[in-house]
Amino acid sequence: MLEQVLRRPQRLLYLMVVGMAILFLSTYFSLSSHGSEQLRAHLDALKSVALRKNGTVAVTPGPVNVTCASFMEELQTMDNIRQHAVKGFDGRLYPPTFYPTEINTMPRAKAGFVVLVRNGDLEEMRSSMRDVEDRFNRKFGYPWIFLNNEPFNEEFKAGVKKMTRSETRFGLIPKEHWSYPDFIDQDKAADTRRIMTEQRIIYGFSESYRHMCRFNSGFFFHHPLTQDLDYYWRVEPGIKLLCDIDYDPFLFMELNNIKYGFTISMHEYPLTIPTLWNVTREFVKQHPESLAKDNALHFIADDPKKGMDQEYNMCHFWSNFEIADLRFWRSKVYTSYFDFLDHNGGFFYERWGDAPVHSIAASLFLNRSEIHHFEDIGYHHPPWTHCPASVSKFHETGKCLCNPEDSADLGDFFCQWQWWRTSIEGKPDAA
Ligand SMILES: Nc1nc2c(ncn2[C@@H]2O[C@H](COP(=O)(O)OP(=O)(O)OP(=O)(O)O)[C@@H](O)[C@H]2O)c(=O)[nH]1
Ligand SMILES: [Mg+2]
């Protein structure tokens, strides 16, 4: 070998070039934490270049073709379609298949669905995903991030993966985000649960419900799997989407500088939060600069002249649906507020929900313009529904399957008119 190289020194040059190339490639993929994903992404990119050139590629098995927008433009006549048709599993000719996410070449926001869920909720979760995918995500391809206080089992992972073509992530919640902090007196917490059980307060008996509310109030936005996201959409098992969503709500948030979006608002049960408002007022007294200049206080308090010197009217955004900006929850003002509440102990000594905590924070620390009611997103979480009002925009157009008369907007229990009186958009037109 050495002799051969010495006889022809140019071979040494070839050997060095090949060696350097191998070294470069292996360093590139091993240094990156996502080496294999990057490799796959590169291969996918190469594949899509090939697709753009060739128009369509048959993927076996079955009559599945992949195509892109420019290729679609060429498919104008039956002859074109026949040319590009593919023989399917049954021997029939199939016109090219298209994936809406690929045709939609708009940039995406740094966003995803964040779901807190138990293994036992698999079927309800799959049902929620079916709606979210069909009504929205099959056109946009945002990832699903599942979080749990116990490890997800293989059945759950396989079951939800089957509901989407998008990326799925599965995260375990760190112990310190789902347990008693050392400043909490656990005997006192147990006493509260006993008293609230006697008083038949909803979820008053439940320890896990309190951990869930505390986690949703203070920690999900710190989870490592959410760190690359700016926006999230909270999805729960067993919900329904009732209207097509044909635009990207995350980009909508970004375009309009919106930090918090909701669909349904209602009153909280006062017995679950006896001291939350007083503790909040104490926080604001200590941090007056935390109040936004044009805040939405009028949503949560009835007299605009009285500022913080009045009672909380119990209105809150129903947080089982949220499209919001994670950077707001990670901000100094919100994290200081959460820490203040947490040290007060009301998540355990009372039964503070994440809905009033999020809602009070958004209403005080954000400007009105930074909060949005997604009037156009028809949504159902048992037992309540939001159905868009405008017949001409949402019902005669075939977008929605719901009855505006069933919408949880009016009636004393709900807080939609408190929002309309506060918001910049006001009440939507029913025509
Ligand atoms: N992993 C995990 N998720 C939970 C637990 N408890 C509740 N969740 C999730 O937390 C969210 C809220 O819980 P829910 O039980 O729906 O509470 P809720 O919406 O206030 O009450 P419902 O009206 O009964 O739906 C849902 O996404 C649940 O899947 C729990 O102990 N572990
Ligand atoms: Mg729920």
UniProtKB/TrEMBL annotation:
A GO MF term: alpha-1,2-mannosyltransferase activity
Pfam families the UniProt entry points to: Glyco_transf_15
Residue stretches spanning the membrane: 12-31
Name of the protein this chain belongs to: Kre2p
Family (UniProt): Belongs to the glycosyltransferase 15 family.
Keyword Transferase attached: yes
Highest taxon, organism lineage: Eukaryota
Keywords tagged on the record: Membrane, Transferase, Transmembrane, Transmembrane helix
Alphabetical list of InterPro entries matching this protein: Glyco_trans_15 (IPR002685), Nucleotide-diphossugar_trans (IPR029044)
GO biological process, one term: cell wall mannoprotein biosynthetic process
Gene Ontology CC annotations of this record: Golgi apparatus; membrane
